[in-house]
Write the structure tokens for this entry.
Amino acid sequence: MHQKPYILPFIFGILALICLTIAPYLVFMYAGIEKEMGLAQKIFYYHVPSAFSMFLGSFLCFIFSIFYLWKRDKNCDLWAACSAEVSLLFGTLVLITGAIWAKPIWGAWWVWDAQLTLTLILWLILAAYHMLHTYLEDAVQSARFRAVLGIIGFLNVPFIHYATKLWRTHHPEVVRGEEISLPPDMKIVFFFCVITFFALFFALLFKRVSLAKAQNELESLKAEI
Amino acid sequence: MQHLEYMTAAYIIIWVAILLYFLSLSKREKAIWEELRELRATITRDNTP
């Protein structure tokens, strides 16, 4: 009988909680205030790690989708679906916080810039993935369609990352290859926030997987009866 | 304190969204485990001679 997998969500949950307690102190007290953007620049510390978490989720969804199409293992589909859902959450946060940052800096909530548009496309793919998972009744067909969508979605990620190099965009380029163009205090806070968001991502992912496994167990038990 | 309102709005939205998602997962998980426990108890009771 399936046992409730407490340990991984618990470990990452504790790690995320510790980091989340320290992160606001670093963001508001340690990192300096940028001269031109003022406090709006501080949105960057949660906006960019949210984007990285979205990419991480898309990457996991891509890997598990490939394995699902190859092995037809339901467990791979379950992990892909959970990764996509958590990725969708962080994607939503990226778009909202990006718009909030853009308003005072660019004077508009949204511009049809290459990086923003590609991020919106990835978000729409993830939303479509979620809708297929929720509404398509044929489980096998749904899993197959979603696997293809999960693969297409991730293929978009390198274009988002390199959009500032490939096209003329409004979006600031903070990460240039392996180099990060930030003062040392901001760089430390940025890396800490990335770790915080990755811990949070995995805490939520393991919790979502645990829920999906319990749901599957309940359905199979009901089918037995 | 230039753009304080934008920064505050962004941080509030992030925390509220993550908290709501976490609470929704916890609530759904609790309901499922409760249902599973009841179902197992029913099966055990039915199988007892």
About this structure: DSSP finds one helix and no strands in chain B. The radius of gyration of chain B is 21 Å.
